[in-house]
Every structure is written in structure tokens, then in C-alpha cells.
Write a structure and sequence with these properties.
By secondary structure, this protein is of the alpha/beta class. It is built from seven helices and six strands; from the N terminus they run E-H-H-E-H-E-H-H-H-E-H-E-E. It has a six-stranded mixed sheet, with helices on both faces. A hairpin with a 2-residue loop joins strand 5 and strand 6. This is Histidine phosphatase family protein. Keywords: Glycolysis, Isomerase. InterPro entries: His_Pase_superF_clade-1 (IPR013078), His_PPase_superfam (IPR029033), PG/BPGM_mutase_AS (IPR001345), PGM_Phosphatase (IPR050275). Pfam families: His_Phos_1.
Length: 212
């Protein structure tokens, strides 16, 4: 039997997370708490052997990945396929303003993601397709190994939905994807088993630790 272990995490908290702005393909810096969250996960994974680290090519994910990798001499590979969903004209905008300006699409985004589409945006299905394609490549490349992927909320949600066989209209059901929360999938002879899903047991304090 061959088991390949995939760890998937979200980047640490960013300035735009605090401001409740949509990021998508745009970026903002990690907050001090976001850096701390990445450090917590780095320590939480200290006893885990990793063969490789992959990250979304967005700065917030790459920076998180660098902190988690720490002193390990591991190649960190940036992947466009793991970038957050492209939100087109929504990017950089305040979430509450978008709810007022685009009530139907805001409802679709959070309630029926298959229907979501604004000018310049990707579909949730397209994100799932590109992220899954890359994940399958990584699984083939690191068969029998252990890999960490640092990415974004929607990417994690659509990947985990694939492994759970979860319907797209249930995408936002719990668990919540907190910054640097951990998912783990063990794939044994092609059969996946979800071991962790949105785990935050590595958080070293609850004070502000759950900020999104």
C-alpha cells in the first residue's frame, strides 16, 4: 500500500481580511497576527516530515509558506493554480458595499456559488478545475510522500468539497476555514481519507486567534 499525505492550509490573516475587503487575485500584507498564525502552524508541524511545499503565487500565501517552512531546506514552489478565485470588479472592495451594490450576486457567492458571476470574475467550478488539476500532478509527483499546500479559502473549500463529494450549494457549510487552519487528506492506493478539516489545534492562544 502507498499512502500520500497532503496538508492544505490557508494563508495568515491579512490587512484586507481585517478591513473586510475582497482580495481575490489582488493582495494585502499579513497582519502581525497573520505572521503569528503562520508561526503557530510552523511549530505545530515541527514533527512532521515534509517532502515539498507548494503555495499560491499570491504574496500573502507565499509569505505564509515561507514562515511555515522555517529552517527546513525545502523547495517552495509558487503555483498560479492555487490562487484565490478571481473576483473581477469586486477585488479590493468592501464586502458590505458589495452586498448593497450587487445584492443578487452577493447572495449567489455565499448561498449558491454555482450561480456566481460578476464582470471579470472566475466561476467556482473553474477554480475547482484548475486547483484539482495541479493537486493531481502533485500527488503523482510525490507518491508515498508528504506535501504542504498554502492557499486560500475558496480553493480549500472547493478541494475539500471534491474529497467530501459536497454539493456546491453547500460549499460554505462548516467547518469555517480560519487563517492557517489545517486540512489533511491521506490518499492510500487512490482512495482519499479526510483526517483533518479546518483544524486549529496548533493555535497557541484563543485571544484574536480566530480572526478571519
Amino acid at each position: 500500500m502507498t499512502t500520500t499525505t497532503i496538508y492544505i492550509t490557508r494563508h495568515g490573516q491579512t490587512e484586507w481580511n481585517v478591513q473586510k475587503r475582497m482580495q481575490g487575485h489582488q493582495d494585502s500584507e499579513l497582519t502581525p497576527l497573520g505572521v503569528q498564525q503562520a508561526e503557530w502552524l510552523s511549530r505545530g508541524l515541527q514533527g512532521v516530515h515534509l517532502d515539498a511545499v507548494y503555495a499560491s503565487s499570491s504574496t500573502r500565501a507565499l509569505r505564509t509558506a515561507e514562515i511555515i517552512r522555517g529552517e527546513r531546506t525545502l523547495l517552495l514552489t509558487a503555483c498560479d493554480e492555487f490562487k484565490e478565485i478571481g473576483m473581477g470588479v469586486w477585488e479590493g472592495r468592501d464586502s458590505a458595499e458589495l452586498e448593497l451594490q450587487y445584492p443578487e450576486q452577493h447572495l449567489f457567492f455565499w448561498g449558491d456559488p454555482e450561480q456566481f458571476s460578476v464582470e471579470g470574475s472566475e466561476t467556482f467550478a473553474a477554480v475547482q478545475e484548475r486547483a484539482l488539476r495541479k493537486l493531481r500532478e502533485i500527488i503523482d509527483l510525490h507518491a508515498g510522500g508528504t506535501v504542504l499546500i498554502v492557499t486560500h479559502t475558496v480553493v480549500i473549500k472547493v478541494l475539500m468539497a471534491y474529497f467530501e463529494d459536497r454539493a456546491m450549494n453547500k460549499l460554505w457549510d462548516l467547518p469555517y476555514i480560519y487563517p492557517t487552519c489545517l486540512c489533511r487528506i491521506d490518499i492510500t492506493d487512490g482512495v482519499p481519507e479526510i483526517v483533518l478539516h479546518g483544524d486549529t489545534s496548533h493555535y497557541e492562544t484563543s485571544e484574536n486567534g480566530m480572526e478571519s
